Amino acid sequence: METKKKIMNSAFRLFSEKGNEFSLTEVANEVGIKKASIYAHFISKEVLLYEVIDQEIYEYFFEIDEQSRDLKSTFDMILNYYSKSKAKRYFWKRLLLFPPAVFETTLISKINKLTEQRYAIIKDLIKLNMEKGIIRPQDPETVLYSFLAMIHGLVSISIIYESENLKINHDDIWQNFWNGIK
């Protein structure tokens, strides 16, 4: 089982670095096994990549959403996820911008569905805060997109400027956002 995990970790890292252009030979070399040994765990590169992406979908969508209670904790949890490694940031940018066509009807549609569900959760949090008078009345969808733009902007900035610390000033950035919507 440890070898399978190492293979998946290598494929994750290589996909985040190269997209679908990585080879199983590279994975084998990185793990320190023969290429043929990969086939004891995965029947093809596509199956390996499918499992890697599916695992990451679970971590990104379910571990965060299970703990979401308010906008600030959702913001923190999403940034904490992306702060785990630069590879996670590259992985999602590459997956969403250049998805492997073989997964378009499976994993990509799953991501789209889960994304819509997450957006609905966040939008409901925004509406609830408006009903309670915590956030001033305004278009909830505009606030949602501002929230998402802030998060994705922070992730993109860390990629563009190759910053390892995604959380630099994130509390101040949150406060600026919060002051603008309350």
TrEMBL record:
A Pfam family it matches: TetR_N
Domain (HTH tetR-type) ranges: 1-60
InterPro entries: Homeodomain-like_sf, HTH-type_TetR-like_transc_reg, HTH_TetR, Tet_transcr_reg_TetR-rel_C_sf
Signal peptide: none
MF-aspect GO terms: DNA-binding transcription factor activity; transcription cis-regulatory region binding
Coiled-coil ranges per UniProt: none
Protein origin, superkingdom: Bacteria
Membrane-spanning ranges: 142-161
DNA-binding region extent: 23-42
Keywords: DNA-binding, Membrane, Transcription, Transcription regulation, Transmembrane, Transmembrane helix
Transmembrane listed as a keyword: yes
PANTHER family: HTH-TYPE TRANSCRIPTIONAL REGULATOR RUTR (PTHR30055), MYCOFACTOCIN BIOSYNTHESIS TRANSCRIPTIONAL REGULATOR MFTR-RELATED (PTHR30055:SF238)
Annotated protein name in UniProt: Transcriptional regulator
